[in-house]
Design brief:
This protein has about 300 residues and is an all-alpha fold. It has one domain. The chain has 13 helices and no strands. It is globular, with a radius of gyration of 20 Å.
Length: about 300
């Protein structure tokens, strides 16, 4: 028990360490001056458009959350959910963990609904988001340009991810002996009975993720990157999925490394990949400040 608590306290520091190591490694490998020059040359109108898209995407994600809650026969106003979503984004970007925002959202929802429903709704919005990105990555894989640069490494990643998705629907009987997997099976059984509501939530999730892709396309436009929309969709969806692994601070370092790896497949220099990734990080951080303001002015935050 003591060892378990010690590891739990140590995990945030390990994530910080991994993020710092990866960022330092990448900056030592590539020319930081060139990265700064690339960012200085960005086109402002594309950045403003990207910020607007980011906020609209957050609203759609909040609407998806509302639809997920409706599966549990729970009604909460979109205004409140949108505010909680932005505050959650603030926590995710400024706390040494990628789940801090989810914990806060669950905590706030438990004032009105049961903990089980709050936690399940937040978990399922995350899961549906990742499923949507996996769907987009798989579809855009068949674009001629993407198919030409897709090697066994990416195919293996996609195969493993699809195996995990299918595995969550068809859990082996022996796993049901464990409480977590038994509860997971019950959740998916309930969701299978609510096909119309699940479809509505998934459709909204796909729209939100597609808007996130357009956001990345706008960032590419700000840097005058000559990439097609399907290339942006393919690279960004894969990167977001991989960086969602709870190994670093909100994917910091992992995201940058994956973009360098993918951009290298189409002979784009690492400096441009890092410029692209850092610009996305700056815009996301700037947008999440709105959540920080909402949190600071919220009288019922405790």
């Amino acid at each position: 028990m003591i060892l378990k608590k010690g590891l739990k306290r140590l995990l945030p520091f390990l994530r910080i360490g991994l993020s710092l190591f990866l960022i330092v490694f990448l900056l030592n490998r590539f020319d930081f001056t060139v990265i700064c020059q690339n960012i200085k040359k960005t086109r402002g109108e594309f950045l403003i458009f990207a910020l607007l898209l980011s906020l609209i995407g957050d609203f759609l994600s909040s609407l998806q959350w509302k639809f997920v809650l409706s599966i549990h026969r729970i009604r909460i106003g979109i205004k409140k959910l949108f505010s909680l979503y932005l505050i959650g984004a603030f926590f995710n970007n400024f706390l040494p963990t990628s789940v801090g925002g989810d914990v806060y959202k669950i905590h706030r929802l438990t004032r009105e609904i049961k903990l089980h429903h709050a936690a399940t709704s937040v978990l399922m919005t995350r899961v549906m988001g990742l499923w949507s990105l996996l769907f987009i990555a798989t579809i855009t894989l068949f674009s001629p340009l993407n198919r030409a640069i897709t090697g066994a490494d990416i195919r293996l990643i996609l195969a493993v991810l699809w195996a995990i998705v299918l595995g969550t629907f068809f859990l082996p009987d022996f796993l049901a002996r464990f409480k977590f997997f038994s509860q997971l099976r019950d959740i998916f059984a309930m969701y299978r009975r609510e096909k119309k509501r699940v479809f509505r939530a998934m459709f909204t999730s796909i729209l939100a993720q597609l808007l996130g892709i357009v956001f990345c396309w706008a960032v590419a436009g700000a840097l005058s990157l000559k990439l097609t929309f399907t290339q942006i969709a393919y690279f960004s969806s894969l990167t977001i999925i991989i960086s969602a692994l709870p190994l670093a601070i909100n994917g910091l370092g992992i995201r940058e490394g994956v973009y360098v790896w993918l951009f290298n497949k189409i002979n784009l220099e690492g400096e441009m990949a890092l410029s692209f990734s850092f610009l996305i990080l700056l815009l996301i951080s700037f947008r999440s400040i709105i959540g920080g303001i909402l949190y600071a002015t919220d009288r019922n935050k405790v």
